[in-house]
Amino acid sequence: MAREWQQTKMTDFLLPDEVYYQCLWAVRDLRRMERAAMEMKKREGYSPLQIMNMEARVRAIRGALCQVPEAYREYIMRSIIAHDTGRNFPTDMWKPWKQKFLYNVAVNLSIV
Q1: Which residues touch 69 (CB under 8 Å, ≥6 apart)?
Q2: How far apart are CA 103 and CA 111, in angstroms?
Q3: Considering just the CA atoms, what is the radius of gyration of the chain in Å?
Q4: Alpha-carbon distance 33 to 26, whole Å?
């Protein structure tokens, strides 16, 4: 997998590498977490705390995504999950929003 780079010029949103990569993998895991949360509700054997924890992680990522302009959301998610953006916008337009998004994910997940 290709190396992910932060926008180092955006010092207010710069994360330690360990936190940055945790956020990337949390976003990449979003679909699985959404499915798992729905399955947990349907099946017995899961505590309410487990369900709430999974739903809180999903809400944290979705909440951070809502802070990004709608036009860039798809490109940012594609960039993180599939390493492909479609190239409809110049990278200097959406990459700062990607950095802010991942910073907000870290804040929402309480890992920064």
Answers
A1: 97
A2: 10
A3: 15
A4: 9
What CA–CA distance (Å, rounded) separates 94 from 44? 42
- Per-residue pLDDT tens digits for 56-110: 999 999 999 999 999 889 889 988 998 776 667 776 788 899 999 999 999 999 9
Amino acid at residue number 1: M
| CB of 39 closer than 8 Å to CB of 57 | no
Q: Which residue has the tokens 């997940």?
A: 109
Measured between its terminal Cα atoms, the distance across the chain in Å is 25
pLDDT digits (tens, 9 = 90+) for 15-58: 999 999 999 999 999 999 999 999 999 998 889 999 999 999 99
Amino acid at 71: A
Residue with tokens 């207010």: 12
pTM of the predicted model over 0.85: yes
Domain ranges within the chain, ordered by starting residue: 12-108
Question: From CA 64, how far away is CA 51, in angstroms rounded?
Answer: 20
